Amino acid sequence: MMGGFWAPELKYAGYDKVILRGQSPDLVYIWINNDKVEIRDASHLQGKGATETAELIRQELKEPKAQVAAIGLAGENRVFFASIEQGRSSASRLGIGAVMGDKGVKAVVVRGTGDINIAQPAEYMALCNEVLEYIKFRNQNPIPGVMTILQGLGSPQEMQTHDEKWHTENFMWGNSRVRRRDFWNDDVKKAWTQTLENMRTRLISCYNCPMKCAATISPPGKPTYMMKCFSKLTYTMAAMSDLDFGLKIAQHATEYGVDAFSAPQVMAFALELYENGILTDKDFPGMPSDNEERFYWLLDRIVRREGIGDVLANGTYWAAKEIGKGAEAYAHNNIKKHEQLPLKLSMLNPVYFLMYATGEKINITQIEGQFPQMPYPKREHREAFVKDWFQVPDEKFKQYFLDWELRGENSNPYYPTAQMSCDIVDWQEKMHYIDDALGMCAGLSSFPLKPPYHIHNYPKFISSGAGIDMDEDKLSQAAKRYRTLVRAINISRGMRRKDDKPPEDHWKKRFPELEEELLDTYYKFKGWNSDGIPTKESLDELGLNYVSEDFIRRGILADGEDASPKENSAGKVPE
């Protein structure tokens, strides 16, 4: 979800969503001005940066308040990790910018001056005021015992935080390889603090939100751009450099429109191949010798799909397959063919194993959230935590956390148990899917601990706001249907149990039999068969009969049974 101001502007124009069908033969942008919609020529915007495009369109339309969601050069050239940039945020994961570029759409521009109708205004505003008061309370009472970025609400407050000891010493540098345990010291903190203070123009919020999760960044001699969350460090750590470099190259990357998780890893992957002789000087003609300049050089070639950049633009998984010569071993940080956060850990965590293995949003921050990442060392601290934990959908979750210990019988990897892990993952994932369905920011609901929006008040917001009769059971069922449909779409394209796995080196200590048990238990919990395919019974119960019928017709499910046929010799399911 992009956040920012674009979605509210669309609502004020009278629309809930924009669906693009087909493909334009020429580059265009879509102009939505209340009830007037135009498809306009964008040939003059070809090759322009995403934020540059937004400003040029506003000038062209003489609409300074128009909201613009645009792609840069990466989207135009169908880079697999291209993003859609929009003022104060972006849609980055899974290459959504490449989809927009493939459709020949440079931007979607909207100006709305209408009104919004609320079914029960008084009840709705009362709920809003309750949430606002709780946000104020949480901002004044950060959660103790967890890392700084998880103590509060909103997107992780990276733009306000100067202490980066946890990230820089626990996350991996380079091509997600190197852990620098003693990196952070007073000199680094002083230099990085000065860098951020000098470039950070101001903290900013999304539409009508009391949080300030993002910041405008103004590198010397470069245009101002928006940044939030972990993108602050991804380029810095991939290049083994400093924050000054990271904030400067991120400006180029934002204009080009690339995902700040994948792009740095792709470049670090390429240079690791070069260092190990798999790629040679012939693959990098004219590449500078300076390390930081190499990242600028590679970024430029990737978004233009020039030379080796054309291969790298497909991401590490596909690039490794095309390069060959053992390159696959260097594309080691992927899940379902997509680069992940550069994080490597010691002991397998059963909850995170399931989230990493089965998640289809391809980003752990879009699955994890309301259940703590690790236990508190002392029981009295756990007891204090659960006292005001009213967001839980069931009291059993409090007991799960109370009994979770750092060491001993009730510790990782065998605690939480397989069934408990299923419950925890399902709750966290459900909230993320509800947020997506509502167009809601995960930073105030599914991602942080003890959020203001949760399973108990969401139905009230839907009922009073939209006039839809909603309760917790109905909302949970809707989320289950949504999640199952996403699974079914990917199953129809060939995804199976073999694809439900984390990176091989994500944990040092792995437990194959436990991992199989976790998958078996989770599949049964979800109503999927042993190969991870939603069963006919579970699909039909959710009103997805047309999906089960299609699966039977194509041989993905056999009529009268909930098993999948063997794949053919090419590893493909019959169409």
Task: Please explain how this structure is put together.
This protein is α+β, with helices and mostly antiparallel strands. Helices cover 42% and strands 9% of the residues. The protein has helices at 6-12, 50-61, 73-76, 96-102, 121-140, 165-170, 186-199, 231-238, 243-256, 262-275, 291-304, 308-312, 315-323, 350-358, 379-387, 396-402, 418-438, 458-466, 472-492, 512-526, 536-541, 545-554, and strands spanning 28-33, 36-41, 67-70, 84-86, 89-91, 105-111, 200-204, 214-217, 225-228, 334-335, 338-339, 345-347, 507-509. The chain has a 4-stranded mixed beta sheet. A 3-stranded antiparallel beta sheet has the order 7-8-9. A hairpin with a 2-residue loop joins strand 10 and strand 11 (338-339).
CATH fold-type name of the largest domain: Aldehyde Ferredoxin Oxidoreductase Protein, subunit A, domain 3
Proper CATH architecture of the largest domain: Orthogonal Bundle
Tally of domains: 3
The beta-strand count equals 13
Whole-number mean pLDDT? 94
